[in-house]
Amino acid sequence: MSDRVYKITEIVGSSSDSIEDAIQGAIRRASKTLSHLEWFEVAETRGHIRNGEVGHYQVVLRVGFRLNE
After folding, report:
1. Burial class (CB in 10 A: 0-12, 13-18, 19+), 22
2. Which domains does the chain have, with CATH numbers?
3. CA–CA distance, 27 with 51 (Å, rounded to integer)
4. What is the pTM of this model?
């Protein structure tokens, strides 16, 4: 077995429901175009305020995926 090499890229997910939904949606979408996704890290969390309440959540994720041999 050879050593593996990984690439890191940033993606942004958003949801009007929760931070968790924003993360899940971003990972789900990224997995459709990126192969071998193996890990993620939340780099930033932010949101939009509407009428004194949270209107929208947004997360910046760093995702790591293994490069093909």
Report:
1. buried
2. 7-66 (3.30.1660.10)
3. 29
4. 0.86
Please state whether 32 falls in left (phi above 0), alpha (psi between -120 and 50) or beta.
Answer: alpha
Overall size of the chain counted in residues: 69
- The token duo for 21 is 């939904």
What single string gives the DSSP state of each residue in 28-57? Answer: HHHHHHSSSEEEEEEEEEEEEEETTEEEEE
State which residues of the chain have pLDDT below 70: 1-2
Nearest to 9 by CA among 56, 64, 67, 69: 64
